[in-house]
Specification:
By secondary structure, the chain is an alpha/beta fold. It contains eight helices and seven strands, in the order H-H-E-H-E-H-E-E-H-E-H-H-E-H-E.
Length: 225
């Protein structure tokens, strides 16, 4: 599987989606779920694997972490360095991380496993560099949802990175994470990609987790070491 994010054109336009009203609502919902599971404490070290343009690396830094982002795409890291110069970036393949064992208090991966040929190997690496007492938090796009349908249409209509993506079900993500301990799973983005973002976002997300988690765009899992 070729990583589609090595294309400089995608790297240049990737971040702009977060400036739209829908992108902002999605980011808010995703960040709430990610930080809720991460249980990040100020001053902890945090590694964002497959960081892309650094959107979630910045989230970690703003939450008080000593954050570093790594990615296999030079184009994405160059964009990250241009827009977020104050943070640390490193070129790295998730399947062979250039860090010592037990280095990080938190290891985060957001919508990266979808584009990795060997997800189990990448997870093994993230677990290896995680310190005892640390948390591994992994977020993936969920299969068979309105968002999955949207990304599939986009891939059919023209060039799209989602043409190369593998979407995950709850059981599949849970099975991967069970290799390291008992996973805690949750969901995020329980609203449709069609129409306006919801006004009462927190209420929609809370109700969605209870009533229709299988329709959420994102699955998020945590395993503690």
């Amino acid at each position: 599987m070729r990583n589609p994010f090595t294309d400089p054109t995608i790297a240049e336009t990737y971040e702009s989606w977060y400036t739209t009203s829908l992108g902002q609502a999605v980011a808010q919902a995703e960040k709430a779920a990610l930080l809720g599971l991460a249980e990040l404490r100020s001053g902890e070290t945090a590694l964002d694997v497959g960081c892309g343009t650094g959107h979630f690396t910045q989230m970690l830094a703003e939450a008080g972490a000593q954050a570093t982002g790594c990615d296999v795409s030079e184009a994405m890291l160059q964009q990250a360095a241009r827009t977020r110069q104050e943070l640390r970036w490193q070129l790295a393949d998730a399947r062979e991380l250039p860090y010592a064992d037990a280095t990080w208090d938190l290891v985060l991966s957001v919508t990266m496993l979808e584009f990795v040929e060997e997800p189990a190997r990448a997870l093994d690496e993230m677990w290896r560099v995680l310190a005892p007492g640390g948390r591994l938090v992994v977020a993936v796009l969920q299969v068979d949802t309105p968002w999955h349908a949207l990304y599939t249409r986009q891939a059919q209509q023209g060039p799209s990175p989602f043409a190369m993506a593998h979407f995950y079900g709850r059981d599949e993500l849970g099975a991967y994470l069970q290799e390291y301990g008992k996973p805690h799973l949750t969901t995020a983005v329980h609203f449709s990609p069609d129409g306006r973002p919801p006004r009462c976002l927190a209420l929609v997300e809370s109700w969605g987790r209870l009533t229709r988690p299988s329709q959420a765009a994102m699955l998020v899992g945590r395993v503690s070491k």
